[in-house]
Design goal:
The chain has 212 residues and is an alpha+beta fold. Helix content is 18%, strand content 47%. The longest helix is centred in the first third of the chain and has 32 residues. The radius of gyration is 20 Å and the shape is globular.
Length: 212
């Protein structure tokens, strides 16, 4: 009887934690969608101890609905709602490709703050104290057992309901961590921010590589 009661308690607790996680994620989604635009500065870490690979860099991201501009590793990637532009100053090359959501296997910049809404089981994780801020982690497990990303941990500021950290672990044990350094909303954006001016790059001698 004691064993049965213990199992029941575990099952009830697990269900409650799952409901709490879902409710928290819904709060985060509601908060994100309440903003006209979002600007984020972040730190990116890639780590695979088995392969002896470690990489760290910083970047920034501007989001306006599905449109985005992200700068990282000296490369600018922009999405205007239809096409993706990858601008590489070092090679003086711009690659233009038509956006196809079925080709996007990873979490895209425009999905970073809402990707968890479907396709994952969720449950509450640990709470970390980060410089006085309470960061509640939610563990996300892909429903698709064949997914390349096996585990995701989403760190959420309990007060602001903003995402502070995103950790992904793939099937090879590589851990990808994005830590938000600053989170600004409803900024005054240039009307041309998400517009690609091909003439400007052509005049600078860039090679325009169209894949569409």
């Amino acid at each position: 009887m004691k064993i049965r009661i213990s199992i029941l308690i575990i099952l009830v607790s697990s269900t409650c934690f799952g409901q709490q996680a879902k409710a928290l994620l819904e709060e985060v989604s509601e908060k994100v969608r309440s903003y006209d635009n979002i600007q984020i500065e972040f730190k990116y870490n890639l780590d695979n101890q088995k392969e002896g690979v470690s990489q760290q860099t910083t970047g920034d991201l501007t989001l306006l609905n599905d449109k985005y501009v992200i700068n990282m590793l000296g490369i600018t990637r922009m999405f205007d709602g239809s096409f993706i532009y990858t601008i590489v100053p070092e090679d003086q090359e711009v690659t233009i490709s038509l956006y196809n959501p079925e080709d996007e296997k990873d979490i895209t910049p425009s999905q970073m703050l809402t990707f968890y809404e479907e396709g994952y089981d969720s449950k509450m994780g640990i709470v970390e104290n980060v410089k006085g801020r309470k960061i509640q982690f939610v563990k996300l497990t892909p429903i698709d057992s064949n997914a390349e990303i096996k585990k995701i941990y989403l760190g959420i500021d309990k007060k602001t309901k903003h995402i502070h950290k995103l950790i992904q672990i793939d099937s090879k044990g590589t851990k990808y961590t994005i830590t938000v350094l600053s989170f600004k909303t409803n900024q005054s954006l240039s009307g041309s921010l998400f517009t690609f001016d091909q003439d400007t790059y052509t005049k600078q001698g860039y090679y325009i590589n169209r894949l569409d």
